[in-house]
Specification:
The structure is a homodimer.
Chain A: E1 4-14, H1 22-29, E2 33-38, H2 42-45, H3 48-58, E3 62-66, H4 75-88, E4 92-97, H5 99-112, H6 119-122, E5 134-138, E6 150-155, E7 160-165, E8 173-176, H7 186-204, H8 212-234, H9 239-253, H10 266-277, H11 282-297, H12 302-313, H13 322-339, H14 346-349, H15 356-363, H16 379-388
Parallel strand pairs in A: 1-8, 2-3, 2-4, 4-5, 5-8
Antiparallel strand pairs in A: 6-7
Chain lengths: ~400, ~400
Amino acid sequence: MINFEYYAPTKVFFGKGRQHEIGSMIAEYGFHKILLHYGSDRIKKSGLYDEVVQSLQKADIEFVELSGVVANPRLSLVEEGIRICREQNIELVLAVGGGSVIDSAKAIGCGYYYDGPVWDFFEAKASPQKTLPVGVILTIAAAGSEMSNSMVITKEEGLVKRGINNNIVRPLFAVLNPELTYTLPPYQTACGIVDILMHTIERYFTNVKDVELTDLLAEGLMKSVIEAGKRVMRDPYDYEARATLMWASSLSHNDLTGAGRQSDFASHKIELELSGMYDVAHGAGLAVIFPAWAQYVYQHNPSLFAQFAVRVFHCPMNYTNPIKSAQAGIRQCQEFFSSLGMPVTMAELGVPNDKYEEMADKCTWGNTRKIGNFVELDKNDIIEIYKLAEKRY
Amino acid sequence: MINFEYYAPTKVFFGKGRQHEIGSMIAEYGFHKILLHYGSDRIKKSGLYDEVVQSLQKADIEFVELSGVVANPRLSLVEEGIRICREQNIELVLAVGGGSVIDSAKAIGCGYYYDGPVWDFFEAKASPQKTLPVGVILTIAAAGSEMSNSMVITKEEGLVKRGINNNIVRPLFAVLNPELTYTLPPYQTACGIVDILMHTIERYFTNVKDVELTDLLAEGLMKSVIEAGKRVMRDPYDYEARATLMWASSLSHNDLTGAGRQSDFASHKIELELSGMYDVAHGAGLAVIFPAWAQYVYQHNPSLFAQFAVRVFHCPMNYTNPIKSAQAGIRQCQEFFSSLGMPVTMAELGVPNDKYEEMADKCTWGNTRKIGNFVELDKNDIIEIYKLAEKRY
């Protein structure tokens, strides 16, 4: 186990009907005026918008609205949010939505107290020192942004997507009601399941030894996500399965499963270029990339991959040849993603094979950096992984 | 899964040598003057006191000392601490020690802002609204107070021991260096191991259904504590095992393993009367009481006890008669406690059998309340459990 810091201060209000308490929660924190931040009309159609507004009004919480957050949330909307918050003396930003809305709210919160352009944070020209508090009503179990220290924003000019990690941006509170995810389309639910799993998988494959406690916590989380994932694909109204996914989404990215380990996150970086160049969902891209990454690197530590196979996917352990178990685990994982309706090859994702070099070049900043910690990967390695992503195992 | 709130805001600084950073940590939080609160000379003999003082001086942190915390921390010292903090304009209470020192610091912190006698909190006459921040340098892995919302204080007059739970008292930060526990006597280490396990066990046995995610997290925690416990009894200088115990002590009582469940805590209440009447260590008392409690209640849900046996203690599952597995698990658990050098019967604990009725009477407030949630227990039930605690299974 290596030295670490753990900090997950977000207060979670979990369970059925909790969105009806939003007004009194905010009042209890002592806030009177908030920015109500969300994406599309989906929350109006579902009735959530009305429930939130009623609860706010009942508690005499004044609110200003800013909608229009899109997937890969845009800088211009963040800047508009900052302007509104300053003009209106907003005290808290309430994000009603998923990872994109939360990230947008986080950027507004930090930008509020910063004198320069908020994009400075994403170019490492400045570091956020203070933020407006951010509250969350979560509508999709996936990104884990509701408890995480990360935010990703896209600058329209040149479509530059950048993320940072800073403990300042961890939300003050998050309302997690699994019922709010009942009506998600199956494809989005499945993308979320892959995303949740991947946040733990990226922390699981590490070179740090003697991390049995976090191994076991991570494996427990992954096993329950896999089981809940199967249940929810059969019955989207399965409360317990939805609840497992939602709580796991927070735990998978608040760093509980990374404590004392060095995480990898190469698959995320390789996928980023894929979804940057083609219009594919993050979770779907990860479903294609991770098995290929695993296929490329498992020989670095076949025992750890065998452990993953046996403990998470219930493969039999081949004690005389752990490599066989390692391979079986990768196959099982790919099959599981596929069973959710996820693409698992480049072809299924609709990605042609003629841009691998360009993507690998961008991913390594023009072949000037390596990515990943479990195995360090350069441009050529990444090209090989894109090629491996053409196959089923 | 039932609705729940989860709130564990304590920032953890984990790993080797972290106590040397205490001065700069406190400076970074913006504090200048603190109360240095600890127990006996043990931290002076070990050199920890000097390390802390040097680090504070280097960072220009002024400090006032208050030592003398004893096991079952006393109200009079808390009152003295409150007086000192007010007179000296203290900004943070730094607890250097284990659960007793931390609880004493928590009570000082809350009492500081309260107009009446601090004991009011423990008699439910008032509820803490605000606290001086509390920081921790942990020297024993056991109570979990470093991340928990609970504090227990003893009033000298009549030796009344009372505890409360309030999120206000969760420490601001905790420095967890497993090296600081190397020199603990084996008996104290073993008491800590039992205490850590019991904080999760008390949450594990629940009537709430569909809690597989927390089941798996709890089982992972328990399995690693059992393995680390065995290692540390063989080699007290095993860093990784000490690290597992220390991190598990925090996770076991910050409510991670209780999320979405109804916890029981009957064993704790039954043990409280035992350690109240006889001078026995809390962990040792629990090692005697839990197997007896389990023996008394397992038929309420043999399958859950069988799961505990199979998943935590690796007993074979008897599918045709799960009761056999349930019983094997209770035996295994008792044997594990015994293997740590813990007493597991009343005789080994040195407790005579003539006060069971009196203890059960106190535990049920003169037979006016029941305790426990998994199975509700009245005075007679508790007497039976004390009797069952005379045996090995």
